[in-house]
Specification:
Elements lengths: L13 H10 L9 H23 L9 H11 L2 H22 L2 E5 L6 E5 L2 H42 L3
């Protein structure tokens, strides 16, 4: 954006928000689907080990070891689920700001919010960034979130209807 024509502070401009989010350590994970999957698997394995250690302290662990392993397996899916939700919320916020015709911004605090209408050239540039860069990330996050949700729900159904 040309700073002389734009009243929006630099850190609140959607293009700069996209660049900042792309450079972030955590929010750069979904840029490629395989790197995101690997990171989520690492968190899931770590959570699985932690949940397995916690459940091993149970008196009943020795009598029904399969139940506690499966319980740890499905409960540990919460961690990758929460991470994927956090990533989706952040990227979706930037996507909405990029495709919006208006930019809501604050000059010094929450009490002085203003709205600036984007010029056509900037609107087209940011819509292109949103469709080429951000939309595939959101699509990948939705797919991964769906897979994790299906696994978690199948675990819930397994424990609801199958007696160990």
């Amino acid at each position: 954006m040309n700073e002389s024509n734009c009243p929006v502070p630099r850190e609140q401009q959607p293009t700069n928000e996209f660049i900042e989010l792309s450079r972030s350590i955590i929010f750069s994970w979904p840029k490629t689907k395989t790197s995101l999957i690997l990171v989520l698997i690492k968190f899931w394995v770590g959570a699985f080990v932690l949940f397995l250690l916690i459940s091993s302290g149970s008196i009943y662990f020795k009598t029904s070891i399969l139940k506690y392993i499966l319980l740890s397996f499905f409960c540990s899916l919460v961690i990758p689920l929460l991470i994927s939700v956090k990533l989706y919320v952040g990227w979706n916020h930037v996507f909405k700001r990029l495709v919006s015709e208006r930019i809501e911004y604050e000059e010094s605090g929450w009490y002085d919010g203003k709205v600036w209408i984007k010029p056509l050239v900037l609107k087209e540039k940011e819509a292109l960034i949103a469709s080429i860069e951000v939309k595939p990330i959101l699509k990948n996050l939705i797919q991964i979130f769906s897979i994790i949700s299906v696994l978690a729900l199948s675990g819930i159904l397994l424990f609801q209807y199958y007696n160990f």
